[in-house]
Amino acid sequence: MIELRGVAEVGIAESDLVGIAAGLACCGKRSWLSSFACFVMCNAYDQLRMSVAFPQLDVKVVGTHAGISIGEDGPSQMGLEDLAMMRAQPNFTVFYPCDAVSTERLMAVAASRPGPAYIRTSRPKTPVIYGNDEPFPIGGAKVVRQNAGDKVTVVAAGVTLFEALKAADKLKTDFVHHVSYELRSPLTNIIGFAHFLGDPVTGPLMDKQREYLSYITVSTNALLAIINNILDLASIDAGAMTLNLGPVDIRKTMEAAAEGVQDRLVKSGITLEIHAPPEIGSFIADERRVRQSLFNLLANAVGFSPLGEIITFAAQRRRDAIAFSVTDRGPGIPAEVQNKVFDWFETHSLGSRHRGTGLGLSLVRSFVELHGGSVTLESTVGRGTTVTCVFPLAQTAEQSAA
Predict the structure, then answer these.
(1) Is 63 helix (H, G, I), strand (E, B) or coil?
(2) pLDDT surpassing 60 at residue 355
(3) What is the pLDDT of residues 20-57, one digit of tens each?
């Protein structure tokens, strides 16, 4: 916390402003001066060099209304060259925060260091990018967003960081829309024509033709499911997915998810036990995404369960949340793998029959977190795994109201 003990107003005389701050610093005071960046640079640059920089006085200079983001004030008000000019000043440390959090932290950092410093600030409102516990050491750079497939590095500071992130989000959204059309359209045509060929109305098929057609149908449906999963994850990552919130009947949603894996349960001789109190009721969420998450959990549990085993599917109403859990009695997950199972395309058979794309649990976590919830995993090698999804009641209700 910076304690303010006195303020001196000098009007539009920036040279006098610097001279007063330097004089106070010579008397042992911690001096802060503030004015438009363009006026400090143009009107008092030599005073900063001779009276502050060379003697290394403890003067902190705050240049406001910097950059072209104050365009409505006209070019005469824009401080465009201030960063270059202040970096050329000897002994100055230059700070350029990008949001409210970094501004507060860097002001404190500047106050804690002896010697001259320049803090550049902008005028427009910008969103908060960093969390309250984010550290801001001097020097280096922060990686704000990164993906394994990145091809370009964008370096930004101050208000341009938000603009760069906004542009990146738009590129992702445009990519998702483009890929959605380019992949789904031809695949939908193949599925449609395969269904058309299998219709007796189009004419009889030989046994071998019918067999090949069934392979096409199974493969294209599986490919469509994978594409849909990838596009869902990409949409969430790009911030392009919105929730269709409404009342979700918990029991019915659990039964619908279980129905989706019924054929796999029968084929493997696995018993699914559903535990949910009759009075568990409903909650506010996106029913489709909740059902999809529960289906993925069950499909994953079936894939890892030995033949003839039991899977427990439970729901519990807590004081402020609804918790769904799926427990299998499969091989369990080693500790060194548990942190990876929710990553994209991360798949481990662990000696089971399971063969998947490694997207199911990634989608579960993404959908639950999109609701403001959380996913936890507990597993013991040789004894099985429990995955629990918690959907907060209050937050989903607020999202619905919004």
Answers:
(1) strand
(2) no
(3) 999 999 998 889 999 988 888 888 999 999 999 999 99
| CATH assignment, 245-401 | 3.30.565.10
DSSP class of 69: G
Whether 277 and 317 have beta carbons less than 8 Å apart is answered as yes
pLDDT at 60: 95
Q: Write the DSSP symbol of residue 104.
A: H
User: Does pLDDT of 158 surpass 80?
Assistant: yes
Write phi, then psi, for 256 (nearest 5 degrees).
-65, -40
Closest to 47 measured CA to CA, from 79, 85, 77, 78: 85
pLDDT (0 to 100) of residue 402: 36
The label of the residue with tokens 């969390």 reads 131
Q: Which of 282, 290, 294, 297 lies closest to 393 in space, CA to CA?
A: 282
Residue whose entry in the numeric block shows the structure tokens 């001196």: 8
Q: DSSP character for 66?
A: B
For the 14-120 domain, the top CATH level (class) is: alpha beta
Q: Provide the residue ranges of all domains of the chain, joining segments of one domain with +.
A: 14-120, 173-237, 245-401
